[in-house]
Amino acid sequence: MTRIAMLSGALCVAGFVALGVLTQEQPTAADAALRDAVGTRWEGALGTAALLAGAVLGPVLPVLLGVGLIVATVVLRRRGDPRAWVTLRVLILLGACRLISLAGKPLFARERPREYGDWAYPSGHVSSVASAGFAAVVLCLWLAPRLVARVRRVAVAATVLACAARVAFGVHWFTDVLGAVLVVAGVGLLVAPALRLLPPRGAERVASSS
């Protein structure tokens, strides 16, 4: 399980780097087609809807989850609850997924489809949503296994919606949002085994033993 996760993670990170290099100077045909399809529609109702979606599905999510994990860790630690070790490790996982994706922006220094602050690759909003979703699923694997399938579906749906919103708002290329998903998945699959956060077997679940 560990080897499969780490191999998958390495492939995702490699894909992220390769995609960033290949599209650094020139967008792909898919990028250009979507940019042309959006055109100036981001100035109208489409842009307003995308902006509102981005206000919710963006950097605020990992911040809120991170604060929640910090509070949970402190409270559980004071109670002597072993689940504090889980919430702490998930907090580290969340930070790794989000912070490493930030490093890609100055590394690739890719221009956006239109005038907008900061670099384009990878999308910070999509990285934020994907990071929060990945961490939430891992947290549920340990502490609320019955919710894993539901949380996974919500995480995937939220990430896809964030991708669509950023492209519709005209501030990201398609490959920006794809790269964000790749790097978060890759880092998550590499860091989770290192933190011993791979799905535990029945009797090993902290939730079951507490």
UniProtKB/TrEMBL annotation:
Gene3D superfamilies named among the record's database cross-references: Phosphatidic acid phosphatase type 2/haloperoxidase
Recorded superkingdom: Bacteria
Pfam families with a match to the protein in the record: PAP2 (PF01569)
Domain (Phosphatidic acid phosphatase type 2/haloperoxidase) ranges: 87-192
Keyword Membrane: yes
Keyword Transmembrane: yes
Protein name: Phosphatidic acid phosphatase
Protein species of origin: Saccharomonospora piscinae
